[in-house]
Amino acid sequence: MIAAILRIVLLLLPVVAVLMWLRWRMRTDRTEDDLVRDVATLRKTLVILILVAVGAGLGLKFTDSNTGAPGTKYIPPHSENGRVVPGRLVPADEEPAEADKTNPESDDQREQDPG
């Protein structure tokens, strides 16, 4: 619950800061033209920042090289001789190691879910 409230506050904080700044600018002795010009500059800056953030997000999504290539399969992390072996991508035609074949968690899930 507290985490959700904190996230909402963090999302609203920039909006509140901009509104406070605009209110302060309106109360100072400035002409209407100055205020209109400042608001227009602020809008352009915000649009540019949003476009940069969206572009960075799309760039990260589409340049992720850790996705498997066609013809590969993922072997999840598992325990071998008391050590955790990290997950890895292997060619689909490669036979997994003996420890990969016997995954007790997946066997339990198959028994619980008959469908």
Structure description:
With 115 residues, the chain is of the alpha+beta class. The chain folds into 2 domains: 7-61; 72-107, no CATH class. It has helices at residues 2-27, 32-62, 98-101, 104-112; strands at residues 72-75, 78-80, 83-85, 88-91. The model is unreliable at 106-111 (pLDDT under 50).
Summary?
Keywords: Membrane, Transmembrane, Transmembrane helix. The protein is built from four helices and four strands, in the order H-H-E-E-E-E-H-H.
Q: What's the helical proportion of residues?
A: 55-70%
Order of helices and strands: HHEEEEHH
Q: How many strands?
A: 4
| Main sheet summary | 2 strands, antiparallel
Quote the beta fraction. 5-15%
Shape call: elongated
User: Strand arrangement, largest sheet?
Assistant: 1-4
* Whole-number count of domains: 2
Number of helices: 4
Termini distance?
36 Å
* Mean model confidence by pLDDT: 77
User: Rg from C-alpha positions?
Assistant: 27 Å
**Unreliable stretches covering 5 or more consecutive residues:** 106-111
Which structural class matches the secondary elements? alpha+beta
Kindly list the characteristics that best describe this protein.
115 residues; single chain; elongated; alpha+beta; membrane; two-stranded antiparallel ribbon; 4 helices; two-stranded antiparallel sheet; 12% strand; 2 domains
